[in-house]
Design brief:
The chain is mainly alpha-helical. About 50% of the residues lie in helices and about 5% in strands. It has helices at about 15-20, 30-55, 65-90, 90-95, 110-120, 135-140, and strands spanning about 100-105, 140-145. A two-stranded antiparallel sheet has the order 1-2. Keywords: Cell membrane, Membrane, Transmembrane, Transmembrane helix.
């Protein structure tokens, strides 16, 4: 009997393994865009509060943004996404839309990957990568899925 037709050459349990593999439901582009907008609003509020508390003026006397404001923006973005996604796999927007970030293989998001995802958001033109798989997902081997599909 040829190797292809020999039933004993098939991997044991491969048929049953198909039933054990969870089927995660990826978040739609619309939901991901809503996450982006909502998180952007939350981040702007945090930046505004921190700028007001610190007495930071948004514009210097030349009428351009000062470097401390750029630094504040970048720091808030990185800390916001890293803390929320690193601890819970979800930002406030993802809690609202019922989505969560997981590793491609279905495990919980690693804190280091959450930090890397945050840094990837600063890649030029990264927001336009959302028409396919966003770079902050593809570079970190993560995905955003509906929270209900992981329970």
């Amino acid at each position: 009997m040829s190797e292809q037709m020999n039933p004993s050459s098939a991997q044991e349990g491969s048929f049953l393994d198909d039933f054990d593999t969870p089927q995660y439901i990826d978040a739609s582009r619309g939901i991901r865009f809503a996450n982006f907008i909502l998180d952007y609003i939350f981040i702007l509020v945090v930046i505004g509060v921190l700028a007001a508390i610190s007495g930071m003026e948004e514009y210097d006397y030349y009428g351009s943004l000062n470097y401390s404001y750029y630094f504040l923006n970048m720091t808030v973005y990185i800390v916001y996404y890293t803390i929320f996604e690193g601890l819970w796999g979800r930002t406030p927007a993802k809690f609202i839309t019922g989505t969560i970030v997981i590793m491609e293989e279905g495990t919980q998001l690693e804190f280091a990957k959450a930090f890397l995802r945050s840094l990837c958001r600063f890649i030029p033109f990264e927001p336009f990568s959302g028409f396919g798989i966003p770079w902050h997902d593809s570079l970190t081997h993560t995905r955003v899925v509906k929270y209900s599909s992981i329970q």
